[in-house]
Fold each of these.
Amino acid sequence: MEDKRNIQIIEWEHLDKKKFYVFGVAMTMMIRVSVYPFTLIRTRLQVQKGKSLYHGTFDAFIKILRADGVTGLYRGFLVNTFTLISGQCYVTTYELTRKFVADYSQSNTVKSLVAGGSASLVAQSITVPIDVVSQHLMMQRKGEKMGRFQVRGNAEGQGVVAFGQTKDIIRQILRADGVRGFYRGYVASLLTYIPNSAVWWPFYHFYAEQLSYLCPKECPHIVFQAISGPLAAATASILTNPMDVIRTRVQVEGKNSIILTFRQLMAEEGPWGLMKGLSARIISATPSTIVIVVGYESLKKLSLRPELVDSRHW
C-alpha cells in the first residue's frame, strides 16, 4: 500500500491546460490584490534615506492610510496587473523546464533549482518595465515625491488619476532615459529574482518533505505544503534581500551602477541598510505564499486530467 506521506508532484503532462490557465489567472489576481499594499510599503521603506519618513512597516502603513486613504496603498496597482502575463509565463516556463530537466536528472532538487531560475529569467524580462512604471507610481505622495518623477496636477490642483498618471510617468521616463529607462535595474532584478526563485522551490519541497515525516499519516498534504511555503519564502527573502534593496534603488532613483549603489548604501547606512524592508517582505510573503501554495497546489489538482484523478492520494 502506498505511503500517504509520499508527496506526489503533479507534472506538466498530467494537467488539463485549459483549466490550468483559466483558474490560474483568477487565482493570481486575487493574490495580487491581497499583497499589493505590503509591496508598496516595502518599496517605500527601501527607497527612503534612513528613517526619514517611516520608522517601520506598521508606521508606514498607518501614515499612508492617514495621508492618502486606502487608495494610497494601491498606487500603481492597475499598471501592476499587467504582470499577470508574466505570472502565466512564469508557471509555464517552470513546468516545461521541469519536464525537460527530467530527461537528464530525476533529482527533484535539481529540477526545482533549474526550473525556478529559468522561470524567473523569462518572467523578469516581461515584468521589469511594468515594475519600473508601477514603482514610480508607488512613490507618489500628496504634495511631494520620493522618487525621480512626480505626477503633474491639473488646473484645479488635483493629480491626474488612473492611467492619466501612468501616461505621465511613462512620458517622463522616456524623456529622461529613453526606452532603456524601462529596463533600468534589469540586471539587478535578475540577480535578485533568479536566485530567489531558484532557492524557493528546492526549499519548498525540502520543508514539505521533512514536515511530511513529522506529521501524522492522516494529515492532508496541503497542510504541510501551506506551512513549507512561508518557510521557504522567509529563507529566500533573507538570502536575497540585500540585492532587492539595491534593485529598488537602481530603478527608483535612476542609478546606473549596481556597485556604486551598493557602496553608497553601505556608506550611508552600513550593513543594516541591506536588510531594509525585510520585515515588510516577509510579512507580505507569509500570507501571500500560503495563498499561492494552497492555490497553486489546488489549481494543479483541479486541472488534473480526468483519467488520473483516481490514481492520486492527497
Note: The first strand starts at residue 140 and ends at 141.
Amino acid sequence: MSPAEEEKSLPLPERWPRASKFALSACAAAVAELVTFPLDLTKTRLQVQGEAAVHRNGAAASQAVPYRGMLRTAAGIVQEEGLLKLWQGATPAVYRHIVYSGVRMVAYEHIRESVLGRSEDKSFPFWKAVVGGMSAGAIGQFFASPTDLVKVQMQMEGKRKLEGKPLRFRGVHHAFMKILSEGGIRGLWAGWVPNVQRAALVNMGDLTTYDSVKHFLLLNTPLVDNSLTHSVASCCSGLVAAVLGTPADVVKTRIMNQPRDKQGRGLLYKSSMDCLIQTVQGEGFMSLYKGFIPTWMRMAPWSLVFWLTYEQIRRICGVSSF
C-alpha cells in the first residue's frame, strides 16, 4: 500500500486532527449555547439597566428600566415580549461559538502539546495552563468578535421595542450589513479589546481550571477519566470563569451596545478603561458584578454541558480525552 493510500485509510480524526477537533468542539458548543442561551439574554439585560452614561447623555428618565433580579427579568421578558424572545440573538450566538470554541480549543491543545509542552511526567504545570488558557481565549475571541457584537445588539432589540424606539435590525444578515455599512470593517470589531480581555480572563477560569482540576483528580484521587470527573472539573471551571469574567463582561456589553458615529467610534465611552471608570464612578464598584448570578448560573450549566458533550464526542469519534 502506497503512503497516499495508507493515509486515506486512516480515520478522519487522524488524517485531519485539528480540523476534526475544531468541528467536535463547535458541535459541543452549539448544544451548550442553545440550552443555556436564555440565561445569557437575562444577563445582558441586567448589565445595561441603570447605565449611568446613558442618563448623562440625555436619555429620558422615564425610559429607564427599573432594576430587577434575574428571575423577575426573565419573567418580564416572557410576559412583555413572549417566550421565544428568550432566544432572541441565539443565531449569531451559535455562529460565535462555532468560531470561538473551535479556535480556542484547537489553540489550547496546540499550545499545551507543541508550544509550551508537558513536563517529563506528562503533567501540564499550572503556570503553563494559565498562559495557554488566556492565549487561546484571546485568539478565539478576536476571530469571533463580529458575531459577538451582532449577538449583543440583537439581544437588546426587545428592550428597544418596549421603550418605543424603532428596531434596528430585521435579522442576523441585516445586522451584519447595517453595522458594516455604518462603521465599516472597523465597526464589526467594535469592543474587541474588552471582548478579548474578557475572553482571556474567562478562559483562564474555564480552560485552565478544567484542565488543571481534571488532571489533579486523575493523578491524586481514585477517580478515573469518566463523566463524574468531567462534571466536577467543569463545575469548578464555571465558577472561576464567572468570578474572573463578569467585570470584563459588563464593560464589553456596554461598549458593544453603545451608539456609534459614522466612523464607528462610540458616543458614550472612549475605551474599555473609560467605560470601567465611568461605571465605577457613576454606579459603584459592585456595578461591575451586575448580572453575576445569571452569568454564573449560565456558565456553570454551559461548562457542564459543553465539557460532557465534548469529551463524549471525542470518545465516540476515537479522539483521545482532552
Note: Residues 47 and 290 are 5 Å apart (CA to CA).
Amino acid sequence: MDPAKERTECPAREKCPVFLAMSSGTVRYAPSGLGLALKGNLGEQSWDTDSQPHPDEGHPPPLEAVPVPWKSVGPCKSHRDSGLVETPAGKEAQGEEDPAATRLDVLRLRSSSMEIREKGSEFLKEELHKAQKELKLKDAECERLCRVRGQLERELEELTASLFEEAHKMVREANMKQAASEKQLKETRGKVDTTLFAEFQAWRESPTLDKTSPFLERVYREDVGPCLDFTMQELSALVRAAVEDNTLTIEPVASQTLPAVKVAAVECGRTNTCALSGLACACRHRIRLGDSESHYYISPSSRARITAVCNFFTYIRYIQQGLVRQDAEPMFWEITRLRKEMSLAKLGFFPQEA
C-alpha cells in the first residue's frame, strides 16, 4: 500500500458524520485563516482522497496541513426554504438532547420537592413551637390553680380545726358552768327553808291565783301587800285589784320640760304630784285602771313598786298556763328573786331610769 495514499484516506470515510454532512451540503466549513469562504456545494464535486489539490488551483490546503476549528453554520437559506427533511444526523442530535432535558426536569422537580419539604418543615416547626408554648402556659396555669387549691384546702382545714376547737371549748365551758350550778344548787338546798319550798311544790302541783293557798297567802302577806301599801289607801286598793286582774296600764308621760322651781311657788298640778304617795315630784309616768279614761301620775318610786309586783304576777301566770318548762328548783329560785325585787322596791331601791 502506498504510504501517501494511506495517509490521505479517512479510515471512517463511509461512516463519519462529518463526511456525510459535507457530502450532502448540510454543513459548510470555513477555515479561520482564509479570507474568503468556500462557495459551492461540496456535494457537486467528487471527493477524491487519492489526489491532493494544489494551492495554485484555489482549493484550501489539506485538513491535516491547516488545523482550524470547525464551526457549524447550519443549512443554507435555500435548504431551509426548500423544506428539505432534516437529515438523520439532526434527528440523532435531537435524540441526544432529550435525555438532558429529562434530567433537567427531574432536577427541577427535585428542587421544587425539596423546597416544599423545607417550607413544610418550617411550618411544622413553627406550629410545634406554638403548641409547646401554649402547653407551657397551660402547665403554668395548672400549677397556679393547684397551688390555689392547696392553699384553700389548708385554710379550710385550719378553719375546720379552729371551729371544732372553739365548739369543744364552748362545750367544756358550758359543762363547767352546769357543774358549778349543780354544785351551788346542792350546797344551797340545805340553806333553803324547807317549809317555803314545800309550800311552793304543793302550789306547783295545781297552780292557781287563789290567795287561799299557803304559798300565795305568804307572798301576799310578806311582799305584795307591803309593796302596794301607799298613802292614798283608796287608790292603793284599786291599783292592787287592777294588778291582780292584769288590767293596769303604765305609760310614759309625753316629753315636756317641767319648770325647775320650788313646789310652793307652783300651782297644784297633777304632773308634779304623785297620785299614790302624795309627794311633790316630777312624774314621768301615769297609770290607767281598766277601761277608765282617768289617768293618775305616779313618781318613779311608785312605778318601781308597781312594776316589781306586776313582774311577780306575770311569772306565776306563765307557770299556771304551762309556759315555763323547768324543774321545781329553778322555778322556786326565780320566784325568790322576784320576791327580793319587791322587797327592795318597797324599801325605796329602784333603778334610776325608773
Note: Strands lie at 248-252, 285-289, 296-298.
Amino acid sequence: MAEPIRVVVTGAAGQIAYSLLYMVARGEVFGKEQPIILHLLDIPPMVGVLEGVVMELADCALPLLVEVVPTTDPAVGFKDVSAAFLVGAMPRKEGMERKDLLSANVKIFRTQGQALDKFAKKDVKVLVVGNPANTNALVCSSYAPSIPRENFSAMTRLDQNRATSQIAAKLGVPISAVNNIIIWGNHSSTQYPDAGQGKVTVNGSSKSVVEAVNDTAYLQGAFVETVQKRGAAVIAARKMSSAMSAAKAACDHMHDWWNGTAPGKFASMGVFSDGSYGSPKDVIFSFPVEIKNKQWKIVEGLTLSDFAKTKLSVTGKELQEEKDEALSVLDSNVSNL
C-alpha cells in the first residue's frame, strides 16, 4: 500500500461535503490503492454536525480511510495536505445575486489562503467549489504566494457535466459517447457552454456534435441557457443548491488533475488566464485543458465562431469586474485593520 495522503475538505459539515467525503474516502478520486487521511474543516457552530459526519464515516468501514481529523482550526485543517477541496463558503439563497456573496467570501478565502501558505504542502492541488468560485480561487491564491498559482483552480466541471448530459439526452446517446464539451469563463450565468468542439460517437463512428445536433438555434439558444441557469433551476426545485452533482463534479475535476486526461480529451477547469482566446489576463477563467503528470495545459488553436467570441468577451468582462470588486473589498479590509 502507498503512504497515506492528507486531503482537506472545508465546509465539511455541509451538503456538498456529505456526498463528497464518501466518494473521496472510497478511492474514486485518488485511486483504489491510495490510503487517505481526511481533514474535515468547518466553523465552530457546525461542530455537532461534524461529529455526526465523523461517526458516519467510521460506520462506512472504508478500507482506504486511515484517519479522520475533524477541526475548526485552519492550522490543523491545512497541515501537510496534498489536496484541498474548498467547499465552505457563504451560501447563496434563492433570489440572491452572486455579487452579494463576494465581500463575505473574500474574507473566508483570505484566511484559507494564508493557512495553505503556512501549513500545506507546496505542491498542494487546490480546488475551489464555494461560490463565486473563480474569484474565491483568485483571492485564495493571492494570499498563498509560496504555492505556485497554477495549483489553484475553480470548478466549472459541474457546468461541463450538465452540458454533456444535455447533449447526450438531445441525441439519445449514452453520456460516455459525448466528449469535449467546453465551459468558458466564469462559473456564473455568463459562462459559455460550447458544443462547437464537441465530438459524439453515433453507431460506432465519431462525428462533431454540431453536425449530429444539426440545430444552430438550439446550440446557441436553449442549450446555452439551460446550462447557464441550471443551478438556479435546482435551487427553485429543491429549495437548496446542487449538492450531489456538485460533489461528483469536484471528484471528476480532482481525479483528472491527479491522474491526467485521456489523449484527445479536454476537461474544463477555471485556471489563471494567460490571455488565451482573448480572455483577460490574471483572472481565473475556465478553459479546456489537457492534463499530464498533474500539470494542466490550456488547449490551444481551437477555432471559435463569432458567436463564441462575443460570449467569451461577456464572461471575461464579468470576471474582470469581480476581480476589481474583490480587490477593493480587500483594500478596504486592510485599511480597517
Note: The chain has two domains: 5-154, 156-321.
